[in-house]
Amino acid sequence: MEAPVQVIETKRKQNQNKDPKKRRSRLETPLQRNLTAYGFLAPWLIGMLFLTVGSMMFTFYLAFTDYDLLTSPTWTGMDNFSNIWSDANFWDSIRATLVYVVLSVPARLIASLLIALLLFKEVRGIGLYRALIYLPSLIGGSVGVSIGWKKLFATDGPINSFVGIFGVEGPNWIGNPSTAIMVLILLSVWQFGSEMVIFLAGLKQIPTYLYEAATIDGASRIKSFFSVTLPMLSPIVFFNLLMGTISSFMVFTQVYIITGGGPMNSTLFYVYYLYQQAFTYYNMGYAAALSIILLVIIAAFSGFIFLTSKYWVNYDV
Amino acid sequence: MNKKSSRKVLRHLLLIIVSFIMLYPILWMFFSSFKPDTEIFSTSSLWPETWTLEHYLSGFGNDAPMNFGPMFFYSFLVSVVVVIGTVLSSTLTGFAFARLHFTPRRFFIGFMFATMMLPAQVVMIPQYIIFHKVGWVNTFIPLMLPSFLGTVPFFIYLMVQFVRGIPKELDEAALIDGCSKWRLYRSVILPLSQPAIVTMSIFAFYWTWNDFFGQLIYLSNPELYTVSLGLSMFMTNMGETQWGNLFAMSILSVIPVFIIFLVFQRYLVEGIATHGLKG
Predict the structure, then answer these.
(1) pLDDT over 90 percentage in chain B
(2) Which domains can be identified in chain A, with CATH numbers?
């Protein structure tokens, strides 16, 4: 949800590039034209220069230093990176984050697609159902909801009283390393709304004649789902997969409030660990190095999704 | 009952079940916030046996363990300023990208899209250090200033897409009539972009309202706590005993988002669906 479909955008750019140079106004010189444009772009240019490009270069510098915010940074070369390599907490955080990403992203994709199919058909009150089901996604990232979620899975919380009805004694969800991460994954799955809305929009764009043709060919509902709906939705699956993966790597509030990284580092998610290094221990250089590794990991995952996409994403209509 | 209408009933039943499961956590918190502390975990029924407003009242006033009044005000202040900053910077930049010619235009647009994939954590540490050096830690400036500098590429993208959908003939007519580029922006594009502006305002508001990370690192002075911070500190300091109060304040903390959602629901859902996808 936070970002657009890159691929559609590049296609669009290719179509649009033909005209700009020809449309040169007779009244303006190129210099004037640039000056006007830069006037409009000034805020963005300043932000880009200092808060994006400058900051990124600064991160790269810091990653090779030791810096505690009080004394000036001292150059330590590759020390941070070699320390990270032998840092047990780092590996715990990598493991926890990967488990989280690998389980929560597909689960959310499937949930959002199934619910989108359910919400696609116009029935009475569909607007209300859509709104109600979307609502958790809107507030799910907030501290308030995380607090409720923590208590929902407490030993004396409603989830355990519910399973108690069936005579099962519920586990200590948050205190147990193998279930704590499930609580966080469930919270992420519960917020499938933005993916769902995007799926809904995609479903609306599938031409009905494709379904008619499939029916005439004798395809069952399930068959036409797999041979019409899914291929037609593949660009959207791609988009949701990419954005979901990136945002899952960055989950923070929920960990901070619900598990605090525990028990036994089982939910020490990467960004939470990065936060601890930077703002609890003030190891700014170390944290900068961690953030560069995060950048590399996310780039690798995105690159992988992009590369495989040509085998399963279908752009023909 | 014939087959068609029983199908319909089944569909509604399914929809109701799914909606209920989705809403259960929120409903549980909501009703719990009206229960006396002793009742919250002793009954599994959603509906309170005795209703009390005590939890809501004890979150406010100077004798409260934590006074949430100023926190709500600060959250609101920061969110509103961020909305203003976002609208200003994103419409200016979006207009320039969509309508003005400059070099290197393609490079800048490409760059803007590239930053969309950049994890915020990569620039967070230097930004913190910069704001720390300038002495703005423990002020609201680090939370507000970036929005004026167009640092959320998603909003610029939204605006670019929207402006591209506005007929170019309008620009040409305005320019022939002697409009300057500024007046074109101010009097033609801006009023026509209202739907995009509403969408980005809503998102900017509720991302800021729900934000925790930024507020956590930049505000450590309890007198400047926002709602997110207040809630998290309340939970770690005395939460284990005061779940009723925590739930009450948590419910209050999601109400602004809830209201905006109710009022602008159509814009929001369609905003994601159409701006997010149509090329």
Answers:
(1) 52
(2) 4-62 (no CATH), 88-312 (1.10.3720.10)
